[in-house]
Amino acid sequence: MAIRTYQKNNSKFYEAHAKLVINGKQVNRKKKGITSIAQAKREEIRLRIELIQLRDKPFKPTWNDWSSKCLERIRLEFKVSTYINYKSNLEKWITPCIGKLYLEDITASDIHELIFNKTNSLGLTSKKTLLKHIKRIFSIAVEDGIIAKNPAKALKVKISESKKLIFNKTEIDTFLESANRINHPYYNHWVLALLTGMRSGELYALQWTDVDFDGGFISINKSWSSKNGFGPTKSTLNRVVPISKELEKFLRLLKSKSLSPTSPILERHKDWESGIQAKIIKKFCLEIGITPIRFHDLRATFITQLLLHGVPVAKVMAIVGHSQLKTTMIYLRLVGNDLKGATEELKIQLPDNISSGNVINLFKN
After folding, report:
1. Domain-by-domain residue ranges, the chain?
2. Burial track 277-309 (b if 16+ CB lie within 10 A, e otherwise)
């Protein structure tokens, strides 16, 4: 019997599972969140019948038919913002081009034409996202035995690495001193971002119950966005940030002014909720004559400062929640710490008597 039990929120649930080989490929069907064993048995039979019908009477959907089914799955399994993003891309760009074609008849050439010739108003990053969405829809079809292979699998959109803006140490000092002097409404937010590397949504969700002064850690276990509300962090994994001496001093001062031990640590300004905090910090930077960064670049500054001062990459990844090394390597290349001293290996030495008089002037007529 393909039924398993699992625990969620201290409650017992069942998952029904059925599988069948269709067109030489094993196709699986699952149903979770079942509350009784009897219901799970009925669901398992229903899934088996569904697979047999699929094998005996193959489903030949158009792109529109199949993408509609996939959208419903995405709506149930992912964040609201993810569903909205998929739905918008499908309706605006993909459906008008290949919507009426049968899924099994769509070729790599059709998708290439769509991505590179029929979406000229999109930037490369948007094209890459569009291709990612197409690939996922086809991938689900392959997993379900609807088609044999994903025609978009080999296609790629190459984009150059985006330039990241960060503060150097002098700019950090100027930034914080200037904001503190005028009592800027975002001073506390900027300090916490620079001392913890937390994302904007994580800072918004941060409460005093997440701060463990005795243990010396801040627990990052939730985030907030205007589309999704409160939910898990970007990676869905919890992490901790060590509390430095400077951060502890700052947090204790903030807590002494807090109205409640369960209140959010930072004031939730209306323009923070509406997402224009990036414009506010950029405007302030321009006013004081330093690099005009965005709010998220405070996180990049935190990461590069850790790497610049020799904190091991593995520790940096754990603190900021990077699940892939290649993400952290972007910042490592930015600071160039792993390259320092490499050019000393050239072993090229200039003559001791070198002077400005015997340096060739290449620009002399």
Report:
1. 3-56, 63-143, 169-338
2. beebbbebbeeeebeebbbbbbbbbbbbbbbbe
CATH of 63-143, one of 2.40.350, 1.10.10, 2.40.50, 1.10.150: 1.10.150
Note the pLDDT tens digit of each residue in 77-123: 888 889 999 999 999 999 999 999 999 999 999 999 999 999 988 99
Q: Which amino acid is at 347?
A: K
pTM comes to 0.68
Are the folds of 63-143 and 169-338 the same?
no
CATH of domain 169-338: 1.10.443.10
> How far is the C-alpha of 175 from the C-alpha of 187, rounded, in Å?
9
Query: What are the pLDDT digits (tens) for 195-249?
Result: 999 999 999 999 999 999 999 999 999 999 988 899 989 888 899 999 999 999 9
The CA dihedral of 215, 217, 218, 222, to the nearest 10 degrees, is -90
For the chain, the three-class secondary structure string (H helix, E strand, C coil) is: CCEEEEEECCEEEEEEEEEEEECCEEEEEEEEEECCHHHHHHHHHHHHHHHHHHHHCCCCCEHHHHHHHHHHHHHHHCCHHHHHHHHHHHHHHHHHHHCCCEHHHCCHHHHHHHHHHCCCCCCHHHHHHHHHHHHHHHHHHHHCCCCCCCCCCCCCCCCCCCCCCCCCHHHHHHHHHHHHHCCCCCHHHHHHHHHHCCCHHHHHHCEHHHEECCCCEEEECCEEECCCEEECCCCCCCEEEECCHHHHHHHHHHHHCCCCCCCECCCCCHHHHCCCHHHHHHHHHHHHCCCCCCCCHHHHHHHHHHHHCCCCHHHHHHHHCCCCHHHHHHHHHHHCHHHCCHHHHHCCCCCCCCCHHHCCCCCCC
